[in-house]
Amino acid sequence: MANHFDTHIMPLAQQMYRYAYAILKHREQAKDVVQDCLLKIWDKKEILSQIDNPRGWAMRITRNHCLDWVKTNRYRLNLVDSDNLSISYNPEYLQFEERNIWLAKILEKLPRKQAEVFHLREIEGFSYQEIADTLDISIHEVKVVLHRTRQNVRENMIKIDSYGIAN
Amino acid sequence: MESQIKNLLEKYWAGETSLEEEKALHSYFEKNLATTQDARYFKAILEIKRQEHPSIKNPKKENTKVWYKAAAVITIGVLAAFWSIQDNQKSNFYEIDDPKKALELTQTVFGIMSNKIDQGRDATAQFTKMEEIKDKIIEANEN
What we know:
The complex is a heterodimer of chains A (about 170) and B (about 140). Chain A is an all-alpha fold.
């Protein structure tokens, strides 16, 4: 049981962190959420061998924890609800080279579902099934959203190159 | 190679690439020095991928550390009570954060306590030994 945790869950810790960070935009908060998720998963280690898709499962736990944290702290964040939360890679915190900040700014403006699908596919290399499991949507929807997102990002890239601004 | 990448890029922007094909694109642009729009896009994604937090810990090890800390606190509480009786002074409370040091001292103290229970020891010698332990705890706390 402990081995399953070490071999299937601990290697996901940094993926969980990047995902939590993209939602929460705060390094220490994202780290705390991930530690809480790992503890929660550790408490459920008996069922790990029965999970078909441990990566999608762990990321869904991470996502739910992040959204719960946002709900609890929404007054502090001046949000009406978590649906208004955007996903981003706050270039002030990330060690971006100046020339790559443009992508972070484009992604910050995406609707949340598009940004999450983009993150899970492009950053974490998730399969369509894993993305569907994490977000609790169909594979068909994942494909449609991903295509739309890439088009959106590409249009903004072209705008930046043409006019030097994003949207 | 170039035409292969060009074809893959067309498929990618049309949303038709497989995961393996996308990995091939990421891998190609990681090493490629081109400054085309596509190259800049994939390099920017790579930069996001490299973000990680260095100090995320295995909760299994964290749980063990908590146990050691609790054992150390209990042990020190017992010692403090012992010293109070011996010295007629207000008991002091020490806490050790380093789990290894905590475990070592806990084992040392329980070794002495069990020896005391075993009897046949001179009370003065016992008190002297306890004083030595107390000094070690103070030293560990200060380090």
